[in-house]
Known about the structure:
The chain is mostly helical. It folds into two domains: 8-56, no CATH class; 62-106, no CATH class. It has four helices and two strands. The chain has helices spanning 13-16, 22-25, 46-54, 64-97; strands at residues 9-10, 34-35. The chain has a two-stranded antiparallel ribbon with strand order 1-2. The chain is flat and about 50 Å long. It starts with 8 loop residues before the first strand and ends in a 14-residue tail after the last helix. The model is unreliable at 1-6 and 107-111 (pLDDT under 50).
Amino acid sequence: MILSVGTTRLPRAAHSEIPWRIHEIAPDFEIEDVWALPTPGGPDDFPRLISAVHDNDFPNGAPLPVRAVMAFLKPFRHLLVYPALIRIIAQRWSALSGNETPDKGPSRQKQ
């Protein structure tokens, strides 16, 4: 597979042609995008890559427009996104455990 200079998005086949472990765990896993990271080294350098991504000081080290967008979106994440996400997780967890209604948490369960 050849990428043009400056292009890091790959075709979906770059993922689907490889027998990834995720397909054993979650056969219905669907890939959103496949990207090539322009990093030197091999598989043994993966911890260094994670460290580089983790240590990037985002969003504090991001450009001002990015920080402004993140600050603008923060209240919406806390008011709308996170509560909806938690409800979905609770419903799915409840369905997997055979309960008809989600638990309200350990402090409200009868022992």
